[in-house]
């Protein structure tokens, strides 16, 4: 009986590991294809697409794509949108969740249910009203307007995440701080926000990567070529160089490189945050 149970566990582990390996290959193979061919001349890409050959290694594609995409300007635009968006939806999302958490009233409970329901609402359903509102407020073709769109998209999920995490914390923390003379805002800023570093890190990674990689919303909001994000610049760059796969692969690598470096620097903190969140949840 013990051998049978042990065998089932080993079989289950083997199947799980096999599925994870297949998923990993599906994710890594396109990325490896881009990286491997970004440093090859165009003539070698069709002949040796998966072969590693240092004799044909070249940085000319990277240098050319960096220059023709006007990479520094596009990087600054994407970084500005990322910072503004993260500041808005983290501050507003955490404050909204804090208000729902401390207000023991049916209205706020129903408001929380509404936020949860809005998670299922696709962006396309609200795209036209949001863009129309931006134009009415003269915020189209503007980084702040683009950040507001992202904040509206992510707010339901962020409120849901912060509220669930706050409800796992004892209310005695707030009561003790209130007895010591702290205002509600001071309790939020000095008691709860330090405890919310885990969920804040998860929000930054998950939603920050989405903001960086998104193309749909900038195409709708940003029209000025000087204010185009990296994804827009890569899109225009690829459209104008159909067939020049060497330059397109180099541009794609330059576009995703900042997020890869960010994850490599923060992977330990991110994994710790996910593990801590799963334990508290």
Please sum up the structure shown:
The protein has helices at residues 2-38, 42-47, 60-68, 71-102, 106-118, 123-136, 143-167, 172-179, 184-195, 197-213, 216-221, 230-239, 245-280. With 281 residues, the chain is mainly α. Helix 4 (71-102) runs antiparallel to helix 10, helix 7 runs antiparallel to helix 10 and helix 8 (172-179) crosses helix 9 (184-195).
Architecture blueprint of SSEs:
Elements: H1 2-38, H2 42-47, H3 60-68, H4 71-102, H5 106-118, H6 123-136, H7 143-167, H8 172-179, H9 184-195, H10 197-213, H11 216-221, H12 230-239, H13 245-280
Quick one: biggest sheet?
none
Helix/strand/pairing category: mainly alpha
The CATH architecture of the largest domain can be named as: Orthogonal Bundle
Question: What is the CATH C-level name of the largest domain?
Answer: Mainly Alpha
Our count of helices gives: 13
**Count of beta strands:** 0
> How many angstroms does the end-to-end distance come to?
35 Å
Relative strand content: under 5%
- Write the element-wise H/E pattern from the N-terminal end onward: HHHHHHHHHHHHH
């Amino acid at each position: 009986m013990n051998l049978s149970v042990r065998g089932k566990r080993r079989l289950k582990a083997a199947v799980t590991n096999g599925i994870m390996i297949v998923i990993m290959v599906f994710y890594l193979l396109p990325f490896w294809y881009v990286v491997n061919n970004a440093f090859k001349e165009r003539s070698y890409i069709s002949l040796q697409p998966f072969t590693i050959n240092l004799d044909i290694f070249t940085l000319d594609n990277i240098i050319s794509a960096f220059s023709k995409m006007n990479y520094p300007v596009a990087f600054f635009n994407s970084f500005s949108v990322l910072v503004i968006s993260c500041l808005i939806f983290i501050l507003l999302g955490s404050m909204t969740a804090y208000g729902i958490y401390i207000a023991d009233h049916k209205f706020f409970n129903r408001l929380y249910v509404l936020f949860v329901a809005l998670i299922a609402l696709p962006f396309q359903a609200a795209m036209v009203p949001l863009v129309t509102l931006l134009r009415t407020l003269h915020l189209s073709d503007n980084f702040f307007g683009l950040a507001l769109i992202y904040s509206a998209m992510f707010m339901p999920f962020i409120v849901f995440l912060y509220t669930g995490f706050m409800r796992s914390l004892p209310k005695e923390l707030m009561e003790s701080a209130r007895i010591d003379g702290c205002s509600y805002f001071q309790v939020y800023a000095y008691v709860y926000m330090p405890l919310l570093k885990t969920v804040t890190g998860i929000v930054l990674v998950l939603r920050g990567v989405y903001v960086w990689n998104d193309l749909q919303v900038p195409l709708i909001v940003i029209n000025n070529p000087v204010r185009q994000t990296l994804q827009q610049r890569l899109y225009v760059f690829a459209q104008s160089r159909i067939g020049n796969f060497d330059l397109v692969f180099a541009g794609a690598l330059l576009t995703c490189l900042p997020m890869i470096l960010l994850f490599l620097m923060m992977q330990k903190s991110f994994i710790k945050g996910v593990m801590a969140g799963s334990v508290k949840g």
